[in-house]
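Escalated from tier 1: NAP holo job.
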Amino acid sequence: MTRLALLGYGKMGRLVEERARAHGFEVALRWRSAELGAARFDPAPWRGIDVAIDFSAGPSVVTTVEQLAPLGVPLVVGTTGWSGDFERVRAAILGAQGGLVYGANFSLGVQVFYRTVAAAARLLAATDYEAWAYEIHHQAKKDAPSGTLKEVVRVMSEAGFSRPVDVASNRAGAIPGTHLVGFDSDADTIRIEHIARSRVGFADGALRAARWVLGRQGFFAWQDVWEEIAAAPRHPSSDPSLEG
Ligand SMILES: NC(=O)c1ccc[n+]([C@@H]2O[C@H](COP(=O)([O-])OP(=O)(O)OC[C@H]3O[C@@H](n4cnc5c(N)ncnc54)[C@H](OP(=O)(O)O)[C@@H]3O)[C@@H](O)[C@H]2O)c1
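Tier 2 regenerated the structure:
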């Protein structure tokens, strides 16, 4: 078993723990807000830790990475809200010749959704189709529109769709996350939708990234490496019935 540390033990940290064994990981250390971002760092509990997954809060990420990179612990960062510290985090990893994969959405399906929307946007760029983008999430989600919806609009623009995209958000109930892009003309409507069924896809994506980053050096964006990670063989001990 590979020894895994959890940075953040909230909804995502606990779900990663639930899924860890099926991916060949043993959770050996759990850090919560009391340890995360603390000025005084004790490296002793980190002896023997192979890799760490961070689902905590944006402000603590830079401190954690600066503390752990010199120890040679590779990291997967799923936490959002640290873009202001991006260059410091990258410098800490590259300076220590460490390894880190970061991503705001570790679901494989969302990456396929981006590619599908980009292909449609490219094909419709020179037509008179108008576009909209919509998302709905559980009522506890604070940011709106979601980072995923912002990214999908960026992807459409990058694909050459230069007309305005009308964007809307709703917050209600316990919905894990639905994103919809529509294109409309006099003749027809095209809708491309991604519906997250649970948070399991995020946890499994992070665990796959943790397996992949072991023994690698570099600062990797999930969107650049997910295809290689998805194609990698699953851990022999994984139970296919548990895979997301
Ligand atoms: N990349 C993805 O696919 C993906 C998917 C889902 C969520 N996320 C992101 O992952 C992060 C965690 O989500 P979650 O739903 O697990 O949140 P959560 O349930 O609220 O858990 C947050 C964890 O971070 C700790 N924490 C809270 N404030 C902190 C601070 N100021 N400094 C240090 N630690 C702090 C909490 O400590 P205590 O346990 O002591 O309260 C808790 O362990 C968020 O940034 C979210 O946007 C990413």
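Helices lie at 11-20, 58-68, 86-95, 108-124, 147-158, 200-213, 222-231.
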